[in-house]
Amino acid sequence: MLGLMQDWPLLLHRIIDHAAIQHGTREVVSRAVEDGGLRRRSYVEIRERALRVAKRLQWQGMRHGDRVATLAWNTDRHLELWYGISGIGAITHTVNPRLFPDQIAWIINHAGDRLLFLDLTFVAMIEQLQEKLPSIERYVILTDAAHMPQTTLKGAVAYEDWLAEADADFAWLAFDENTAAGLCYTSGTTGGPKGVLYSHRSNVLHAMTWAAPDYLNLSSRDTVMPVVPLFHANSWSLAYSAPMTGAKLVMPGAKLDGASLYELLEGEGVTMTAAVPTVWLGLLQHLEATGGKLSTLKRVVIGGSACPRAMTEAFERKYGVTVSHAWGMTEMSPLGSFCSVKPVYEHLEGEALYDLKVKQGHPGFTVEFRLTDDAGRDLPWDGKTFGRLKMRGPAVARAYFKREDEPILDEQGFFDTGDVGTIDPAGYMQITDRSKDVIKSGGEWISSIDLENLAVGHPDVAEAAVIGVAHPKWDERPLLVIVPKPGRRPGKEEMLAFMTGKIAKWWLPDDVVLVEAIPHTATGKIQKTALREMFRDYRLPG
Ligand code: AMP
């Protein structure tokens, strides 16, 4: 027997409708890409403009299932495009501008995008690439007539002129909640990039799950600044979960340096923000250099790569801001776990609390964890045994775009994340490594992430990365690569002395080298493949 409740498909435009009706005067403040000035709109205006986007896209010939690409920073325009595109059943393909131009061409072609909306920042790059983008019928530049550049891009038009051709007299289309809404390619550290195709239903459920108090903890009284880009895995749901709850949004545009972010945090009264650790490194350095304080910020969510303990301590101890460590991946929409304190750990304080806070945390409802060995046998949740982390849920991918016949789930329907970690009896997960980055020494595993976290706790270290290098006896041994803080030169003996006693002795790196910069991927993670390449001819001492 079926229940007798209403059929109300979980469609994304219902979110912006709700924001406009219930929280209509709440603002979306954006730093303009043109001149860095601030632009203010209300949720009522964002919804109206999204409806105009939808209507204008239909005139442009866009239909259900068509892919429309964006190459854009976090702004109000990008946000209204998202809602407008998915509101006609078309698919927003968020292209990551930090990819190499050839990768950008590859994914646009693979996606078969028909239109490309791009910020001014990217016009020159796309002009160079346009011959390799045969599927793009027209380029819309996210600016107004006054700032429109001279360009060779096909059919180029200023977004505001394009949008002015439609009014908001339009009704969202009706369709199945499983309709595709967004497409995002993984950074592709192995093999080619793979397209993850989100649906309306998966994005709505994901936003509802993670908005709750143990996770993003959003309410209509918050002011949320998503520094994590819309082009990187759904901006960790914030483009949906913030309007869903009525939080004010602050969109930082193209300026992600410490000083620019600080100006927005203080000027707009931001209470909650989220980004990868490298962004927060910039903000903390700015605060240290200027003696700035964070007078309104209450919570910062840090994820995308492991949040160093020293960063959590700096935010909490020096600035009184609570850090939540989060973990996820593109394939998971992207959030998978959050490190908030459950009652079982409420008694923890001081160092013991920071030991908990370095963990990646526990999953919200709609994400199930599984821990197995290489043969797929379940491993104990004892907080010690490392294994493959696998995930299942309604916002986890079951296949990649145009590769539907390649199975990516195990026999129980779990997706192997490629991460290695432990799960403790209270359900907290801790990543020890990517399966391909763990250092295999004498048949045992050493976690490169643990070593990196420890090394960045040294006062002279700005950034640290650890890779395994070949060793005749042990197979692999750890090499610690450090970017020192300006004017500092921490030595090998000093670093090893600092780390001794905090980890097993056989985990201590065999060598320490200083470099000017560590290579990063397009999503801000340490690029271990490039680092291994840099040290290909390196030989360990002795
Ligand atoms: P992406 O799909 O580009 O977001 O990359 C996902 C991968 O980033 C995960 O599989 C992890 O290896 C890594 N990652 C994300 N968040 C964290 C975190 N908090 N700690 C450690 N690794 C993380």
TrEMBL record:
Molecular function GO terms recorded: ligase activity
Stored Gene3D superfamilies: 3.30.300.30, N-terminal domain of ligase-like
Domain AMP-binding enzyme C-terminal: 451-525
UniProt KW Ligase keyword: yes
UniProt catalytic activity: 3-(methylsulfanyl)propanoate + ATP + CoA = 3-(methylsulfanyl)propanoyl-CoA + AMP + diphosphate
Chain ranges of the AMP-dependent synthetase/ligase domain: 22-401
Source domain of life: Bacteria
GO annotation (BP), single: fatty acid metabolic process
InterPro entries from the UniProt entry: AMP-bd_C, AMP-bd_C_sf, AMP-binding_CS, AMP-dep_synth/lig_dom, ANL_N_sf
This protein's UniProt keywords: Fatty acid metabolism, Ligase, Lipid metabolism
Enzyme Commission identifier(s): 6.2.1.44
Membrane-spanning ranges: none
PANTHER family on file: ACYL-ACTIVATING ENZYME (PTHR43859), BUTANOATE--COA LIGASE AAE1-RELATED (PTHR43859:SF4)
Family membership: Belongs to the ATP-dependent AMP-binding enzyme family.
Name of the protein this chain belongs to: 3-methylmercaptopropionyl-CoA ligase
